[in-house]
Every structure is written in structure tokens, then in C-alpha cells.
Design goal:
The chain is of the alpha/beta class and about 300 residues long. Helix content is about 40%, strand content about 20%.
Length: about 300
């Protein structure tokens, strides 16, 4: 009988064949000490990603979708197949260090009150990528809209959402680490459920972390768990569709978690501010693309 894996690594891929290859190579070059499995969900890539996995990594469990079902659904497909005591949601544009997976499992073993952890993410040029945020509470959003977060970036009150003051040099509890690397206990997944597919691309990890904290689990940033993250290295222009979807997801987050808890006028004001922020960002993007003001 096959030994059940301690760790299940879940990767959702869409047209990132080269990066996925390097990610998988790094996992098998620097595996954890315990048994593990890798599950790749390919969302109908057109670049041969699925075939690459079949040929070069036959030990990987491959789920090849015939359509792009989105990030949340893809991860849920992987987690439904996962057998590990710990489950790692991992982006394909990452690479492991020699002790990344070992340190992650060790930290969760040593801290049973912690339900999930995020990693220190280092860009190809050596810079540490900002990768933790507070929850987008009404107060935190208001400070962002009013510009107080930018005026006082080191303030733990005014900059509590983007957390520009965070040092990334010691372990500490955080609201929501970036979902690029998020290792979760199976017990947590079974208690709070899978990702909410009402958030197909953005805020599914935020919603998941929010539910974990509400269920009594802690989430920690652990700098001893370090990855290389290629995704933040380039400064790609944000597409209008992504801007619209990210703000739609934020509005959905408020509809789900705050609509019944806030006075109607305050809830309506927040929705207006979210939509205003979206249109301002779209306008700024249009101005930049037409040769207008530069950032």
C-alpha cells in the first residue's frame, strides 16, 4: 500500500510552461524530508504546458482542464485530490530554496495553533517582495482612500492595509499573506472549506484567510520559509479587465462579510468608494497608455 503523503503541493497553471518547468524542477531538487505529492491543474493552456508535465514529470498528478476554470476552481480541484496532512497552494512562477519545504512543515509541526503560513518572497534581483497585508476593513479602506496610508506609510494605524512598515525579517502573525505560497493544515481546510469560487481570480485567498481567522486559527509570515518569485520581477501594464475584476472581487468580499454587519449608509459609501477607485485607476491607465501623465 502506498504511503500517504505528508505534503500535497497544488499548482494551478495557465500558459506558463517555462516557469512551471523550473518550479517543478526546484521542488524535486529540494524536496521535503517527508513523503509528498505534486498536483498540477492546467487551465487549458495553449503553450503545451500539460504535455510538458506529462513527458518531463510523469510522477506529477496532472489535471488537464478543457477550459480555463479560474484560479479558485483550479485550486479546489487540486485540493479535492490532495491526500496530505499539509496542503501548499503554490504559484507556478516560483522556485524553492534548499530548505523551503522542510522549514515550512517544521514550523507548522512546532506551532499547532497556526493554521497556515506564508513565505518570504525574493525577486530575481534580490529584493524582498512586499507580500503581506491587513484585511480591507472599512477603516483600513478609508485610510487608503483619504491618502493617510501614503502620508504615514510607517503608521500601523493608517497603513494597516498595505502594511508598508512590515520588516519581513522575523516570524509574526499576519492577516493575509500573498497566496503565491500558502501552506495550510488539512484540518483547517476541512473546517473552513475550500476556496470560494465566487472569487474566481482575486480575493479568494483573502476570503480564505479571513475565514481561517474567524474560525480561531492563526496565520503567520515565516521568513525562514523563502522562495524565489519571478512574477513580481516585471512591471507589466495592468489590463483594464484585471482592474475591473479586482474591484468586483473587493465589492464581493464586502457583500459577503460586511453587508449584514454595517449600517446601510456606511456599506453604500464603501461600495461607492470601491467603484470610484476602480474608475480612477482605469482613467489613470488610459492616460498612461495615451502618453499622458507618467507615474
Amino acid at each position: 500500500m502506498a504511503v500517504a503523503p505528508t505534503l500535497s503541493i497544488c499548482i494551478v497553471n495557465w500558459n506558463t510552461r517555462g516557469l512551471l518547468r523550473e518550479c517543478l524542477r526546484s521542488i524535486y531538487q529540494y524536496p521535503p524530508e517527508q513523503p509528498f505529492e505534486v498536483i498540477v491543474v492546467d487551465n487549458a493552456s495553449s503553450d503545451g504546458s500539460a504535455e510538458m508535465v506529462r513527458v518531463e514529470f510523469p510522477q506529477v498528478v496532472l489535471i488537464a482542464n478543457e477550459a480555463n476554470l479560474g484560479y479558485a476552481r483550479g485550486n479546489n480541484q487540486a485540493m479535492e485530490r490532495a491526500r496530505g496532512e499539509f496542503i501548499l497552494l503554490l504559484n507556478p512562477d516560483t522556485e524553492m530554496r534548499s530548505d523551503t519545504l522542510r522549514n515550512a512543515i517544521h514550523f507548522l509541526r512546532e506551532h499547532p495553533e497556526v493554521g497556515a503560513i506564508g513565505a518570504k518572497q525574493v525577486l530575481p534581483d534580490g529584493r524582498v517582495q512586499p507580500s503581506v497585508r491587513g484585511f480591507p476593513t472599512p477603516r483600513n479602506l478609508l485610510f487608503e482612500v483619504l491618502g493617510l496610508a501614503r502620508l504615514f506609510p510607517r503608521s500601523r494605524l493608517f497603513a494597516a492595509y498595505r502594511m508598508r512598515w512590515f520588516a519581513y525579517d522575523r516570524p509574526m502573525p499576519v492577516d493575509q499573506p500573498m497566496g503565491t505560497f500558502l501552506m495550510v493544515r488539512r484540518a483547517v481546510m476541512e473546517q473552513v472549506g475550500l476556496l470560494d469560487e465566487a472569487f474566481p481570480l482575486f480575493f479568494n485567498d483573502v476570503d480564505w484567510c479571513y475565514r481561517m481567522w474567524q474560525a480561531g486559527w492563526q496565520i503567520w509570515f515565516v521568513p525562514q520559509v523563502e522562495i524565489l518569485h519571478h512574477g513580481g520581477a516585471s512591471t507589466k501594464q495592468v489590463r483594464p479587465a484585471a482592474i475591473r475584476e479586482s474591484h468586483r472581487a473587493l465589492e464581493q468580499f464586502y457583500r459577503k462579510h460586511y453587508r449584514s454587519r454595517l449600517p446601510l449608509p456606511l456599506y453604500a459609501l464603501i461600495v461607492v468608494l470601491i467603484r470610484l477607485s476602480m474608475w480612477l485607476r482605469l482613467l489613470w491607465l488610459q492616460l498612461r497608455s495615451s502618453g499622458g501623465p507618467h507615474s
